[in-house]
């Protein structure tokens, strides 16, 4: 059979001649329709429109083959829909119903794949959002910024989701990203402000020291410079290492200058005496500080209102006592600090208990019940202190080792030591309360 004979047979199977017109038989729900006119002959016209169908079928075959081979099958959906639409209007003679069925099957398969991919994309985008939101409380700003940059790229590369979810997901991801950078900006502003305050405090102490370094009022100036040294230690914060070293060098130079002059003065006037900054000997200063420690320790036996007021007076008196040589200086200071801490912590505890009683939350009356209330409160306070300490330690562990973070690192370390002292003091108070109960 010649090729034209096959085409002619296919044409007569799916079409017919009526007058001078070529018609396609009805198929599916479509009525018979005219596809062309008879020109040279009926056979030639039928064969011509059968050839047109073969050309259209080849386009469908090529598309379905490419779709089968492609990874992203969804990109072929619109082309498949376009060819499917042409089935109802294309001028040709052939089995259009089978082509429509093949294109419909391909369309359904693509829609299933698209739905699965969108579910996968939805899961991916939700995880990306959670990863950004998890960075909300970090203090590793540079590391987190690098991570967010990677998450942004992953977001861009992730395919689409259902249309009704796009706006909500985009807004949530954008808010999480912007929230992180807003918090970083606020932290940097606060850090800069803190650095400026610390810098100004150090500069003020330097200016005061330099104004005193040539003073001839040796006793009074010694006391003032010792106080300035204590004030320097108590500045709450730090600076970048290079800047801090420069300021410390100036501060120390002013003090060294004065105390070298003081040494010459002492050698000239009283070479046999070893004195403190207030004219008293180091041994006398040590005895005075030991006396202050003893009084601070005894404050726990006095009414709390009196004890707190007296503790503050003792702290002021301590600053006026001259220096003590060697390790004993640190030892008496730690003893004095611990004694005052107990007074202030016990005062805070009693305030808490009175507040509970005023609110009707505490109906205990016996000494043992009162003891239990106070011990439980102290244990709760210790738990909160430890939680705060753990957060600080976690933040310290995450802090990158860069010069720009040195000030923040020092601040965190100082706060951690403060909580360690608070916890130690509360544990000692629990033991003190136990001893009072059994006494």
Characterise the protein shown here.
This protein has 439 residues and is an all-alpha fold. It has four domains: 111 residues, no CATH class; 68 residues; 65 residues, no CATH class; 76 residues. Helix content is 75%, strand content 3%. It is built from 13 helices and three strands. α2 runs parallel beside α4, α9 packs antiparallel against α10 and α11 packs across α12.
Brief synopsis:
By secondary structure, the chain is an all-alpha fold.
List keywords for this structure.
439 residues, mainly alpha, three-stranded antiparallel sheet, 3 strands, 75% helix, elongated
What number of structural domains do the residues give? 4
Q: How are the strands ordered across the major sheet?
A: 1-2-3
What is the number of helices? 13
What is the SS-derived class?
Answer: mainly alpha
**DSSP, total strands:** 3
Strand content: under 5%
Globally, the shape reads elongated
- The end-to-end span amounts to 122 Å
Question: What is the helix fraction of residues, given as a range?
Answer: over 70%
Mean pLDDT score: 84
Give the biggest beta sheet.
Answer: 3 strands, antiparallel
H and E string: HEEEHHHHHHHHHHHH
Radius of gyration: 44 Å
Which residues sit in consecutive blocks of at least 5 with pLDDT less than 50?
270-277
Write the layout of secondary structure elements.
Layout: H1 3-14, E1 15-18, E2 21-24, E3 33-37, H2 42-69, H3 77-86, H4 96-133, H5 141-157, H6 163-212, H7 218-233, H8 241-269, H9 282-298, H10 304-320, H11 327-358, H12 367-398, H13 406-438
Antiparallel strand pairs: 1-2, 2-3
Helix pairs in contact: 1-2, 2-4, 3-4, 4-5, 4-6, 6-7, 6-8, 9-10, 9-11, 10-11, 11-12, 11-13, 12-13
